[in-house]
Automatic annotation (TrEMBL):
One GO CC annotation: cytosol
Domain Carbohydrate kinase FGGY C-terminal: 261-449
Residues annotated as binding glycerol: 82-83, 134, 243-244
Superkingdom of the source species: Bacteria
Keyword Amino-acid biosynthesis set for record: no
Xref: Pfam families: FGGY_C (PF02782), FGGY_N (PF00370)
Enzyme class of the recorded protein, top EC level: transferase
A biological process from GO: glycerol catabolic process
Name of the coding gene: glpK
Descriptive protein name: Glycerol kinase
């Protein structure tokens, strides 16, 4: 049997498909961006048909550029933007509403009401999450309550819910498989991550009928095979994981205490906590990192909503750069002495603040402030937000602050940002050779399940360093800057 694996990485801004060979080398790559829709303040939607179309096109392109045909590929691994919610008609496979994206805040009021009723401790105890519009449950209920006739159709069992992995699985298998994996289930607010099952109390609380839900499988498991018409031959799907979890696997963070941080649209830091459910005292999330052979491995996660998205805003909103990579050049030319601080709370603030109503602000602008200082403050905001996450992780996790941080995601291409990150964190930042870490993690899950890729230890030994960024900022300067960042955040938070 061949050992080529096709990984599908359906992200927030683009769909990618990567063909890996047995030594984890990339031999084929396809990528397609798609439209983002912001219908109201704090709302973010995708067209599910765009997600589907771009995935299929990216896969076809990746297979073609690899020089292989579908029958040469041993298995597919799927990884996806998490929490994003799609509800579709089981008969036609057609979504009844746009995908409500993880960043979307339209259910903030509902979450606040549940919070005011004192329900967060119960919800956190079961799910490891918080009552925030980020997660899927209130998004599902919103669709059922706002699409005419949807509740009745749901009651009759005619509708299906899925996060993006589930929707893609449904489409790829021609409607034969309605399933997800434990990592994606763990982001819905409906799944008890200690018991490993959908929870009736939570289903009642969020008013979501059980008939909508997919079956939950391991992350390395059999998920059916693709419709032969799609790629010319059926391909078995053997791995599924949320993208942050897949990056944790792709960075080979298999040991408790190992930590990675991914910089895509948002930034997500995850520390492996082994078989322990560690309840955060610092408003981090407890989640499933991966589930193999029926055994969940847990993680603590810090989630921030805006990382690379701030660079997109410099490009598409302000128009001060044409391409993302110009942000680092601008920042490097900025006046170091201007104390400009940018809190990019475009869709509220995530960990550790969890303020869905906060909106972005830039502080310290003077007549001398130019696009350079704004770009610098934008890139630095991603570093400061990581400082807040790592501080919270260090308080929750017994071994304290990490000495090094493995990074990945589109934004880590920026050397300027990575050096600044090392400086402001006072931690060594390690960027791997394989930057397609998320896809690699999904590929490993599928390849391992298919029996054509090695086990965890051998896979870990293949991790290779590209660049190490060593911290070089004086402690007094670092603490002063972090304090000023926190003042800026304090002025952005809404009083509740
Ligand atoms: N050289 C760069 N400097 C700064 N940001 C970058 C650079 N290259 C890409 N990015 C940012 O990385 C993000 C894309 O990363 P990716 O991991 O593909 O995200 P996602 O999975 O969320 O779609 C974009 O928001 C983009 O602005
Ligand atoms: O698509 P990304 O890489 O921005 O990741 C999105 C996260 O999965 C949201 O939880």
């Amino acid at each position: 049997m061949s050992s080529y694996i096709l990984a599908i990485d359906q992200g927030t801004t683009s769909s990618r498909a990567v063909v890996f060979d047995a030594s984890c080398g990339v031999i084929g790559l396809g990528q397609q961006e798609f439209a983002q829709s912001f219908p109201k303040s704090g709302w973010v939607e995708h067209d599910p048909e765009d997600l589907w179309r771009t995935v299929v096109e990216a896969c076809r392109y990746a297979i073609a550029t690899s020089g292989l045909s579908a029958s040469d590929i041993a298995a597919i691994g799927i990884t996806n933007q998490r929490e994003t919610t799609i509800v579709w008609d089981r008969q036609s496979g057609v979504p009844i509403h746009a995908a409500i994206v993880w960043q979307d805040r339209r259910t903030a009021e509902r979450c606040r009401a549940l919070n005011d009723d004192g329900l967060e401790p119960m919800v956190s105890e079961k799910t490891g999450l918080l009552l925030d519009p980020y997660f899927s449950a209130t998004k599902i209920a919103w669709i059922l309550d706002n699409v005419e006739g949807a509740r009745a159709r749901a009651k009759e069992g005619r509708l299906a819910f899925g996060t993006v992995d589930t929707f893609l699985l449904w489409r790829l298998t021609g409607g034969r498989v309605h399933a997800t994996d434990a990592t994606n289930a763990s982001r819905t607010l409906l799944y008890d991550i200690r018991k490993g099952s959908w929870d009736d109390d939570l289903l009642r609380l969020f008013d979501v009928p059980r008939s909508l839900l997919p079956e939950v499988r391991d992350s390395a498991a059999d998920f059916g095979e693709t419709d032969p018409d799609l790629f010319g031959a059926p391909i078995a799907i053997r791995g599924v994981a949320g993208d942050q979890q897949a990056a944790t696997v792709g960075q080979a963070c298999f040991e408790p205490g190992m930590i990675k941080s991914t910089y895509g649209t948002g930034c997500f830091a995850m520390v492996n906590t082994g078989d322990r459910f560690v309840a955060s005292q610092n408003r981090l999330l407890t989640t499933i990192a991966y589930q193999i052979d029926g055994r969940p491995t847990y993680a603590l996660e810090g989630s921030i909503f805006i990382a690379g998205a701030v660079v997109q805003w410099l490009r598409d909103g302000l128009g001060i750069i044409d391409r993302s990579e110009q942000s680092g050049t601008l920042a490097a030319a900025a006046d170091q002495d201007q104390g400009v601080f940018f809190v990019p709370a475009f869709t509220g603030l995530g960990a550790p603040w969890w303020d869905p109503d906060a909106r972005g602000a830039i502080f310290g602008i003077t007549r001398g402030t130019t696009a350079r200082e704004i770009a610098r403050a934008a890139l630095e905001s991603v570093c400061y937000q990581t400082v807040d996450l790592i501080d919270a992780i260090a308080k929750d996790w017994p071994s304290g602050a990490p000495r090094s941080l493995r990074v990945d995601g589109g934004m880590v291409a920026s050397d300027w940002t990575m050096q600044r990150l090392a400086d402001l964190l006072d931690v060594t930042v390690e960027r791997p050779v394989v930057m397609e870490t998320t896809a690699l993690g999904a590929a490993w899950l599928a390849g391992y399940r298919a029996g054509v890729w090695p086990g965890q230890r051998e896979f870990s030994e293949r991790w290779r360093l590209d660049t190490r960024f060593e911290p070089s900022m004086e402690m007094t300067e670092r603490l002063d800057r972090v304090n000023r960042w926190r003042e800026a955040v304090g002025r952005t938070l809404t009083a509740r």
